[in-house]
Amino acid sequence: MLPSPFLLIHGFGSAWKQWQHNILPLSRYAPVYALDLLGFGWSEKAATVYNSRLWLEQIYDFWAQFIQRPIILVGHSLGALVAATVAVDRANMVQRLILVTVPNTRQDMISAPWLQASVGTLERLFTSPLLVRLIFKLARQPRFIRSALQSVYKKSDRVTDSLVSQFVIPTSDRGAAQTLCRLTQSATQPNYSASRQSLLGAISQPTLIIWGLADNIVPLKGCEAEMAANPQITLTTIPEAGHCLYDECADEFNQAIAQWLG
Asked: Please, are residues 34 and 16 in contact by the beta-carbon 8 Å criterion?
């Protein structure tokens, strides 16, 4: 029997190339696929509403065309939410699931109706197209991207010119600024993603969650109880690893997957 292939799903603002230190090591166990979610990387900057359902359908279409057998689905951050959505809603696709940090969603953080109304006003202010476009002009500058990555990576020496260019180049795509507006506005909507708690509770496949203990973007604290409630979930942590642990601590990350797969 052929081994189940890997399908790698990147996080917000990233692209498939950031898995460059994982693709070859994982390919020793099974074929590896990676794609750019719509709106990110080298994918189309489509004029659409962005949410987990859209990316679920994109992943399903890719799987149906190129793979057509159960996979080991790997997702990082936003990609972890999308991967969990796929595992819950298209369970026949996913044999095993690997989630690399799982962020809170809007529903997790803002549950009280009175708070939703207040936060909604602020969200409309800070996601206005004019403000987002101004931020985009700043954020696309290589020195800004380098500084942002150095604040995310625990090991700042991993922030190379090549890595910075992976984030800079897609900002020149046609429609990139408008896509950022759509992404920020979509992220404030209730249908952007199911809550982390509901997704983790509904997963039926064997699942490995890998977290960097030095992650200052999505800290582990607060998620332990949600993971412990599902016996299918196994947690592995990597000390001194930040948010992009699959890249900055690639050897430890790849080894954690290998040990879990047995």
From this structure: yes
Q: Are 100 and 8 contacting, i.e. CB atoms less than 8 angstroms apart?
A: no
The residue ranges of every structural domain in the chain are 6-261
Q: Whole-angstrom Cα distance, residue 246 to residue 221?
A: 19
Rounded Cα distance between 182 and 159, Å, is: 28
Q: Which CATH number fits domain 6-261: 3.40.50.1820, 3.40.50.12780, 3.50.50.60, 3.40.30.10?
A: 3.40.50.1820
How many Cα neighbours within 13 Å face the side chain of 104? 14
Sign of CA dihedral 251, 252, 258, 261: negative
Q: Token pair for residue 202?
A: 């509904």
What φ, ψ does residue 74 adopt, rounded to 5°? -120, 125
Strand, helix or coil for residue 254: helix
Question: Using an 8 Å Cβ cutoff, are 208 and 119 in contact?
Answer: no
- What's the pTM value of the predicted model, to 2 decimals? 0.90
Amino acid code (one letter) for 174: R
Q: What is the pLDDT of residues 170-211, one digit of tens each?
A: 988 998 888 988 888 888 888 889 999 999 999 999 999 999
Predicted confidence (pLDDT) per residue in 20-43, tens digit: 999 999 999 999 999 999 999 999
Extract long-range pairs of 22-28: CB within 8 Å, 24+ residues apart: 22/246, 22/250, 22/253, 22/254, 25/250, 25/254, 26/254, 26/257
Residue indicated by tokens 């979930």: 233
User: Cα–Cα distance between 230 and 152 in angstroms, integer?
Assistant: 29
Q: What is the DSSP letter of 103?
A: -
